[in-house]
């Protein structure tokens, strides 16, 4: 699963027993050599799906990590791009990879922006937010967007119960729940807490108009459903109250 340049088992164990912020500070120098980084195929498919909806002005990558998603918005936005994350270590890596981008340290549940961006994206971050945290996250993104702005992120389809991945993800989430029940500080990272229906409801409650499009280049499951969908949450325009 890991390249020779990735973290050792000891390093991963130390990370897992840390807080989310401290864990990612420790992992940051080797993060891009782990399977936790969003694959380039997902990034490219997202960029291709968003391109016909642009061009955009200013772009924001929410929970930008080491900056993989900054490459996406840099290809779509005509003005300056910004990445926000609460891990100083991850932001340091993002600055090195994208020196022209603004990198801001902040909690995504309290974004320090108001009507500043035309496009916001996020990759692989929803599992770090408990369902009770999503309203604050989505409300902050809503405030950060200009009227008519778009919030987009890919969401994978849940694997079928007959799949080995189903049981692997279930086992991971159960292990994390046990870990967080007996160890402090908690490390919030779950794979099964953000189903599309619940995410859509929370986005709608925040004020967005929500649609999805299949990311067809990423293939389909055996039942014909797309493996990934791109969630498109549009902030209504000020004049009409409509997207």
From TrEMBL:
<dbReference type="InterPro" id="IPR041698">
    <property type="entry name" value="Methyltransf_25"/>
</dbReference>
<dbReference type="Pfam" id="PF13649">
    <property type="entry name" value="Methyltransf_25"/>
</dbReference>
<dbReference type="InterPro" id="IPR029063">
    <property type="entry name" value="SAM-dependent_MTases_sf"/>
</dbReference>
<dbReference type="GO" id="GO:0008168">
    <property type="term" value="F:methyltransferase activity"/>
</dbReference>
<keyword id="KW-0489">Methyltransferase</keyword>
<keyword id="KW-0808">Transferase</keyword>
<protein>
    <submittedName>
        <fullName>Class I SAM-dependent methyltransferase</fullName>
    </submittedName>
</protein>
<feature type="domain" description="Methyltransferase">
    <location>
        <begin position="60"/>
        <end position="149"/>
    </location>
</feature>
<dbReference type="GO" id="GO:0032259">
    <property type="term" value="P:methylation"/>
</dbReference>
